[in-house]
Design brief:
Elements: H1 2-21, E1 23-30, E2 41-46, E3 49-54, E4 60-65, E5 69-76, E6 83-89, E7 94-101, E8 126-127, E9 135-136, E10 144-148, H2 149-154, H3 160-164, E11 170-172, E12 179-181, E13 184-185, E14 190-193, E15 196-199, E16 211-218, H4 222-225, E17 232-238, E18 246-254, E19 258-268, E20 275-285, E21 295-309, E22 312-325, E23 358-375, E24 378-403, E25 409-440, E26 443-458, E27 463-467, E28 470-471, E29 477-478, E30 490-493, E31 496-499, E32 506-507, E33 524-527, E34 531-546, E35 549-564, E36 571-587, E37 592-603, H5 616-620, E38 630-643, E39 648-666, E40 669-693, E41 696-711, E42 728-737, E43 746-755, E44 758-759, E45 772-773, E46 776-785, E47 792-799, E48 807-810, E49 816-818, E50 823-831
Parallel strand pairs: 1-7, 14-17
Antiparallel strand pairs: 1-4, 2-3, 2-5, 5-6, 8-9, 10-16, 11-12, 12-13, 14-15, 16-17, 18-19, 18-50, 19-20, 20-21, 21-22, 22-23, 23-24, 24-25, 25-26, 25-27, 25-32, 26-34, 27-33, 28-29, 30-31, 34-35, 35-36, 36-37, 37-38, 38-39, 39-40, 40-41, 41-42, 42-43, 43-46, 44-45, 46-47, 47-50, 48-49
Length: 832
């Protein structure tokens, strides 16, 4: 008995000694505005022994050490100067360091991002691209929504459309990388990467694994992006190197034969941390719920940053993207019966392509950026981008409805065409500006003066091999004219006499997707004329602030030069534009601001024609730049706020957008284009995101849009709703991680998206051949599991939880974009 008591006493004594021999260190990290800093790295070291932690949502940190003697505390966070302090540790003592203010580093306010972001939440508090200089989102007099890499990761949003679906008033128009923003369908076929424009078709969806965040800048943004869509601009910001070493790999598999892998490595290359690297890579092999559709891709993106001192920084980056699959034109449905379309007349899996069709693209993008501060208030920034894009296409696609010998439409047969197309594009971008800050008392001016240029060339050698329409008696191909039926070859099918198509009809009742003998087609050779267009702009900007009032004023002058049939029988077109922006912000409290803004935008029609209803006319006719450019204007008022010590960010906006000189197909001459009319889109939207508690974060949005035609040469179109524009749009996604011991390491995610009914958008007259697509609500859910004391996380996500049938959007009755049925994805991520 005495022995047992002695053992119990010894154990108790040892436990007591161990528990009380540790020293506890704590503190609170804040910035100059007394806001907590979340996610900063805190390291306590003695010789080679290190203990580390990260500050929580309130900026607090806490750690323990068992060693006595001199210790070094080092605190680092991207954008702030590293804090270092020495303390002498004595056993059994607690050390409260109080509030520690981290000072901003010069790099944090550079206009070109050189160093990556370590913040780990659904919020991005700064924007670099909306004004070309770093500005807090709450100080920007314009609505900007950011989708961070954390939200992308939690949603397993491997492709861009899955990422932006959480943003208010943003909805897909179909199966492509193409969106309706604030009631206006995008017309520009390029992408914005790090604030600079690339050129490629929108058929394949970009991979997101190399992206830091996706910004949706609402309204026309020509003052910063030159030619831009009136509804808004999607800017993809790539990941930049970090000051600390991080490594991450992930493997995923799921429905439709999907296999994915990604890798992300970053850190310093030398002890002084002046040379940083980052390498991102991604791989995918995937089929689809759609017939004979697959999407395979390889992405490789290395990046280097050189920061010899706080006043100089340089970054270079390369993105290689090779995609191979099929061009999915969408679900065809039966022709109208008694003027009505039945969207359920064919299964959502139906695709008219053949198994030997293909779509291959290869893209290579090089980017370089340079930042120099000559003094505390005077600096210089420059960026350059070179991009090449190649396309290789072979496809069967619908060319209209089949007709009988009398010209009567046969609803169950689709007229087909076959295209083999190759194109080679090259794009150059350059931007340079000086920024000068003036401060006198409580008055500040941040002045920016700059120049940018963009050059896009479709190279010589692009062309088609094509078979379409109907075969004539003489062996040619032409549109069928019932009054000259004798000039066309004829056949009888199921007792119906009809002209012979150049490509066999697609039977919607008995579909065939096998390999087709394309050598039997009577292919014509068509050259796509080379094209060169360039734009140059000069601009001045001032962000003026006095007390609680601030103003953002921009003036931009741009001239656009277009050469059609470049290096041959050239035709030249020139245009210019003067683009202003003025925005006012009033700081109601330290956390809430109200704003109002007016700005204008423009788009030369060479940039919009590829997505026009009669795109083919662009290839054979003189450049659409002969038309006056599309002009737009935005009036917007709103409020922004940060709550719960900066953990929650919310934005509400009311907007009114007008656009005119809209390029359309000519109703009376279907082989040509015309500009006519004016459209107006007005509404309001609300976005909120952030941490409600330390283990629960969410993003939610709602948008209302009333988009109509207000002027048109055809009176009956006035007042008609713009195609592709839902009135209501709502989204939600949240993640909750359990904290109790039983469920620790487990988290759940849940989301929903609602999109109101809308018309298909891709038609020349807005009123003919439109299909009204029903509204839909889709629910998604996820389970996260992170085993204790490991760096691995498993994620199981189920999309379309209740297996609803719905349509994302549609171009016309032969090209609807159905949403995927219920599907799952299992992902494993390991960090080291």
């Amino acid at each position: 008995m005495k022995i047992n008591k002695l053992i119990l006493f010894a154990i108790t004594f040892c436990v007591y000694q161990i528990a009380h021999s540790q020293s506890k260190i704590s503190g609170v990290l804040i910035d100059a505005n007394k806001q907590p800093i979340y996610g900063a790295t805190v390291i306590v070291s003695k010789n080679n022994n290190k203990t580390h932690t990260a500050s929580d949502l309130d900026g607090k940190f806490y750690l323990e050490t068992k060693k006595d003697g001199l210790h070094i505390i080092q605190i680092s966070y991207v954008g702030y100067k590293t804090y270092q302090q020495e303390i002498t540790i004595t056993s059994k003592q607690n050390y409260g360091l109080g509030k520690i203010i981290l000072a901003l580093s010069n790099e944090y306010l550079q206009s070109v991002e050189i160093i990556g972001r370590t913040r780990k939440d659904y919020n991005s508090d700064y924007s670099f691209s909306a004004t070309k200089i770093a500005i807090k989102n709450k100080e920007l007099p314009q609505a900007v929504a950011s989708v961070t890499k954390e939200l992308i990761s939690d949603r397993l949003a491997f492709q861009l459309p899955d990422a932006v679906k959480t943003v208010s008033n943003v909805s897909a128009t179909g199966l492509y990388n193409h969106y309706n923003i604030r009631g206006i369908t995008q017309a520009d076929d390029g992408q914005i990467v790090n604030g600079m424009r690339t050129r490629q078709y929108y058929f394949l969806q970009p991979i997101t694994s190399h992206l830091e965040r996706v910004e949706v800048i609402k309204g026309p943004s020509s003052v910063t992006f030159s030619s831009s869509d009136p509804g808004g601009t999607v800017n993809m910001v790539t990941k930049k190197p970090l000051l600390e070493k991080r490594s991450e790999v992930s493997l995923a598999t799921g429905s439709f034969g999907t296999i994915r892998a990604t890798a992300d490595f970053t850190g310093p290359l030398n002890e002084s941390k002046t040379l940083l690297y980052r390498v991102n890579a991604a791989f995918q092999e995937a089929d689809s719920f759609r017939d004979v559709v697959n999407n395979n891709a390889i992405l490789f993106s290395p990046s280097l940053s050189y920061i010899p001192n706080e006043n100089t920084s340089f970054n270079v980056e390369l993105i290689y993207n090779n995609a191979e699959g099929n061009l999915d034109r969408g679900q065809p449905i039966f022709g109208a019966i008694n003027g009505e379309y039945d969207i359920n007349s064919t299964p959502i899996t139906m695709n008219v392509g053949a198994s030997n069709d293909h779509y291959k693209t290869k893209e290579l993008t090089f980017m370089a950026s340079f930042n120099k501060k000559f003094s505390e208030n005077f600096g210089f920034n420059a960026q350059y981008m070179k991009q090449t894009w190649d396309e290789d296409l072979a496809e069967h696609r619908i060319d209209g409805s089949a007709v009988d010998i009398n010209g009567t439409i046969i609803p169950t047969l689709a007229r087909m065409r076959y295209d083999k197309r190759q194109q080679f594009w090259e794009t150059d971008n350059f931007s340079a500006y000086f920024n000068y800050d003036i401060k006198a008392g409580n008055i500040t001016n941040k002045i920016l003066i700059g120049y940018d240029a963009s050059r896009w060339e479709r190279k010589i050698g692009a062309g088609f091999n094509r078979a379409r329409r109907y075969l004539t008696v003489s062996g040619g191909q032409a549109n069928f004219n019932p009054s000259n039926a004798a000039n066309f070859q004829q056949m009888v099918v199921n007792g119906v006499t009809m002209p012979v198509p150049a490509v066999p009809h697609f039977d919607l009742e008995n579909p065939f997707n096998g390999a087709r003998n394309t050598s039997a087609y009577n292919l014509s050779e068509l050259t796509i004329p080379a094209n060169l267009n360039s734009s140059d702009g000069i601009y001045i900007q001032n962000q003026f602030k006095i007390g609680k009032f601030s103003a953002l004023v921009n003036l931009r002058y741009e001239w656009f030069f277009d050469i059609f049939n470049y290096k041959a029988d050239e035709k030249e077109f020139k245009t210019n534009a003067f683009v202003p922006r003025i925005g006012l912000t009033y700081e109601i409290t330290n956390n809430i601001s109200a704003y109002g803004t007016y700005l204008e935008g423009f788009q030369p029609h060479t940039n919009t024609v590829s997505l026009s209803p009669t795109a083919e006319g662009f290839f054979w006719a003189a450049s659409p730049s002969r038309f006056e450019p599309l002009e737009s204007s935005l009036k917007e008022i709103g409020a922004k706020g940060e709550f719960l010590n900066g953990r929650i960010f919310a934005n509400i906006a009311l907007f009114d957008i007008t656009q005119k000189n809209i390029l359309l197909g000519n109703t009376y001459d279907l082989d040509n284009l015309t500009t006519r009319g004016k459209q107006r889109s007005k509404g309001f939207e609300f976005d909120v995101s952030g941490y409600i508690t330390s283990n629960f974060q969410l993003t939610a949005s709602y948008g209302y849009t009333d988009a109509k035609i207000v002027e048109d040469a055809i009176p009956e179109f006035i007042g008609a709703r713009i195609g592709g524009a839902p009135k209501h749009n709502a989204n939600f996604w949240g993640r909750y991680d359990f904290k109790n011991e039983t469920l620790k390491g487990i988290g759940i995610g849940f989301g929903a998206q609602y999109v109101d009914e809308r018309y298909t958008w891709y038609n020349p007259t807005y009123a003919i051949n439109r299909v009204l697509l029903p509204d839909y609500t889709v629910f998604d859910a996820a389970v996260y599991y992170k085993p204790n004391n490991t760096s691995m996380q498993l994620t199981l996500k189920v999309n379309n939880l209740f297996n609803n049938t719905y349509w994302l959007g549609g171009l016309n009755p032969s090209r609807l974009g159905p949403g995927a049925p219920r599907n799952f994805m299992l992902n494993a991520t390991y960090k080291f």
